[in-house]
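Private note to self, pasted from the team thread so I don't lose it. Backbone tokens:
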């Protein structure tokens, strides 16, 4: 099949390369020409604008978006609106909030076009290992892009599935990322306990390597942890500042709306927020409270 790929960042570029390797024709577009040139060198066709991308595709078109979640998706859809024709299919493969996806799908259907959401996991390893894809949309639309999904997945019958109606793909990916928060936090806390046991002089990289085989907590995430510890066993020079891209927040909000307790994911999100506090007001006030009711020592800065 042929499709247009809008957004050729690390994941979008790797997906384009995997599709080209699989025999698909891909027309790629990004704001920066050098990024487009990179996928052209891999065998894709390049576009100089969204209009140029649409012109190069055979109707009914498939335009796959791999752009950052949030306003960028809306801006891209607004730009595509006058260029598309009834029957064209828009795929959002980014980390969009599923509630935004429901709104966008309704708008795109109002144009006479089709919409599919694909929650995509795989990161920088997807090119070689394949992508995990959670797909939301109507049966006929998912079937239309099946050839691309099969090529992008780790195998034809694994690593991807049609979750349900529009929005369900991004909903499942949202929860996937919330779980990821909890797993990462558990590994990080466990290795911190190991590092604190100074009298054993534990080799954390060695521990991670042992746990990778036969252990009940073995995982791909543990393999990445082992690789990180091999590169920098003491994490020297790493600032304890952890970003979040929104999915954990959305998962916690949804859990509360559904009256489902999710304490591990919630605490993992809070730990990320705490990591960014260079001047933590909370702990300062706690120290002052203890001083006021019990006369406990307050340590002064400097």
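Design output:
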């Amino acid at each position: 099949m042929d499709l247009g790929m809008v957004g050729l960042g690390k994941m979008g570029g790797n997906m384009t390369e995997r599709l080209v390797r699989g025999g698909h024709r891909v027309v790629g577009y990004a704001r920066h020409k050098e990024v487009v040139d990179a996928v052209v060198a891999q065998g894709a066709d390049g576009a100089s604008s969204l209009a140029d991308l649409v012109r190069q595709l055979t109707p009914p078109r498939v335009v796959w978006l791999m752009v950052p979640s949030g306003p960028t998706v809306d801006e891209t859809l607004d730009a595509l609106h006058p260029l598309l024709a009834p029957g064209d299919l828009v795929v959002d493969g980014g980390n969009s909030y599923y509630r935004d996806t429901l709104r966008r799908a309704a708008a795109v259907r109002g144009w006479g076009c089709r919409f599919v959401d694909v929650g995509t996991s795989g990161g920088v390893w997807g090119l070689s290992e394949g992508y995990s894809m959670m797909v939301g949309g109507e049966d006929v639309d998912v079937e239309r892009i099946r050839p691309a999904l099969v090529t992008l997945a780790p195998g034809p019958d694994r690593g991807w599935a049609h979750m349900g109606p529009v929005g369900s793909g991004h909903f499942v990916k949202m929860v996937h990322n919330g779980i990821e928060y909890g797993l990462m936090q558990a590994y990080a806390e466990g290795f911190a306990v190991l590092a604190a046991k100074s009298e054993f002089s534990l080799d954390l990289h060695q521990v991670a390597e042992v746990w990778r085989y036969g252990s009940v907590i073995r995982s791909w995430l543990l393999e990445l942890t082992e690789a990180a510890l091999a590169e920098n066993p003491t994490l020297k020079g790493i600032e304890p500042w952890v970003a979040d891209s929104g999915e954990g927040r959305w998962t916690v909000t949804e859990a509360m709306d559904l009256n489902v307790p999710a304490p591990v994911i919630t605490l993992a999100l809070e730990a990320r927020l705490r990591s960014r506090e260079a001047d933590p007001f909370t702990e300062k006030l706690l120290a002052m409270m203890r001083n006021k009711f019990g006369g406990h020592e307050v340590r002064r800065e400097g």
